[in-house]
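pinned: reference chain
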Amino acid sequence: MIGQSPLRKENGRLLRGCGKFVDDHAPQGLLFAAVVRSPHASARILSINTEPAINAGAHSVWTHENTPGSLVPLPLFKEPATNPYCDSMDAPPQFPLAVDCVRYLGEPVAVVLGDSPALAEDAAERLEIEYEPIDAIIDPQESIKDVASVHENRSNIAAHMFACIGDIDAAFDNAEVVIEERFVYPRMTSVPIETRGICAEYDSASRTMVIHVGHQLPYALREAVARTTGLRQTDVAVLCPDTGGGFGPKSSVYAEDVLIPAISYATARPVKWIQTRSEFMLTSQSGRDQILDVRLAARCDGTLLGLDVKILKDTGAYLCWAVIEPTNTINHIPSQYRIPAYRAEANSVLTNKTPSAPYRGTGRPEAAWVIERSLDLLANELKMDPFELRRLNLIAADQMPYKPGNVYRDGVPIVYDTGDYPQVFNKTLELLDVPRWRAEQARLRDEGSTRRIGIGVANYVEASGPGWPCEGATVRICEDGMAEVLIGVSQSGQGHETAFAQVAAEYLGMPYENIRVMGGDSRLLPHGFGTAGSRVTVNTGNAVAMAAQEVVRRAKLVAAAQLDCSPDDLAGTPAGFARKDDSSKSVTWAQLVPVAIYSRILRDEQQPGLHSTKYYYPPTVTWATGTHAAVVEVDTETYSWEILDYAIGHDCGRQINPKMVDGQVVGAFAQGLGAALGERVIYSPEGQMLTGTLMDYVMPKARSIPPLKLLHFEFPSTMNPLGVRGVGEGNVGPVAPAIANAIADALDNAIVIRQPTLTSAKLYELSTQAVL
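pinned: its structure tokens
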């Protein structure tokens, strides 16, 4: 069953419009919440007058003074003490509702309840809040100077990281050529089709709470709500129904995630809040936003000697996710290349912007941008074919397993365990048919055409499957002989119900159609960690396999007693088990279940029934890899461009479902393309958002996505029993540098592209600078 692409189990209800989302849940007695937000990026709160809102029909108004748990800080991601690079971190506390000051545009100040969404919104607009504006700090390069503070009496440098591998000074002393450049990766947001939302129902009689929410880390939210309300975690049930996209920012515990349950607890009424699109653009956490100063040392033949990088990460007003992004960037910059000496230093600084969160890729796109643009600049300096430069420095297949020398956040030295990077690189270029496009490129140049063709390439690596520290699954056989798989992770379109049914089918020997997967409910498993970091297939997939194998072992004990043979003499059948020496002697799963429960056959197991719960702890991350190659046509009069041909070769280890792998690759490509097309969050110097609507925030459209040539490689990972790697994040990163390298090639490298915003206006600006 693994390696096939059956019809997705989720498709039926979703395509028929029968999915259940947060806003579909409407219990009786429901109150609706509207969040009152700061209109300033930085200001003191002088007074709040709630009377006009009450007079307008509000049920109640909640500020930090009367909201339960309002002075309990929101949780930060627990950065492991094993992080090898982070030598200092000072995260300011973030409270659900602003206390004395607001520090970013849209920070929650109050919550207004009403009997309808419209009433709550109207009453919220009547709330009278007096502010004293303070000069905002928007530029991270100004913030790091610590002249003024985002948080009083606290440095703006929230964290510092440092890594050094090899003799970096010797590398640059012995270099025959050095490339030095500053790169910028802009701030971006995720824009899922479904905004954030939450509905909380507190039952005062049983002192229990049920929460419906679209969230990537339901157990983290459960813990935060329990801490805020004083309830036990076991009395808080977090249900994650169908969710319209996550992409990282839905993994944070936001103010609303604890405010709505806290207010439900205080009112003993169900309370719902559904975020508007404007609120999402304004206040949902953004990603990227790094400035990277790079020096690359090499010999004249193109051999890489050393790489020195300084990273400035704009983390916004709070350090919500510790130092994941810059740490990931540090570890991904060396990519697939042999770089003997490497030094990286990073500062995460505070500004008066919306806080930052992991966004699909989480530090990897910045890394791919830096190394792949640097290599093309080096090739241009050496008058060398950029493809040959990469071939010269790629890690060879016979060097696997390869240790680049850096260490992952879990404290384990990084190992690229299997793969053949040169093969993937060369086969991807063959798929593109480079000679044909080179001939066309030369023809157009010789004709003096305003149409110019360029070819660009970019490689990537993707750390996937982090443990945090594990993930679990329960596999159980029901009385009708069907199987249920219970998982702790929630989904937002990835296809968990399909993939884990396939894994269970493989290891149970049962038909795929006979297996149901349930997740997104904190009551199903006592512990879970979440959907992020391309970790679910590695962690949950292996937990499902382990649990299924244990169920088969227990089932064979029961079947052997029924069929009067040894468990080793049994063979699995789609219906159950049969004796190897006489297949007519068989027993079905449905027949085994009551015997496993009511007989004494499993007495030595100390547990009746055919079920098992297993947790998989990975030894460390696995590394997926791949190559993107692009052919781009540029009009030298308008500087508009289009993709003529695009090839992707990737290795995610063993593929559970190839069609869903394709979907992940294409989806990641689309999000990577957004950066090239101009997707970025822009603030004014005063901290006002200038890209707060989809009129201003430029996203790829369906017609923007060209036909893609996909090439799958399967080098099974040795880091986990299933041999799988992640596939969700890595293919975001190489899109922009592959296109940028192609555009630069089309323009004879007359311009230097330093950031992935490749709009016609930006390219024209770069061309005029080059002429000057």
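why pinned: The longest strand covers residues 451-464. Residues 460 and 626 are 6 Å apart (CA to CA).
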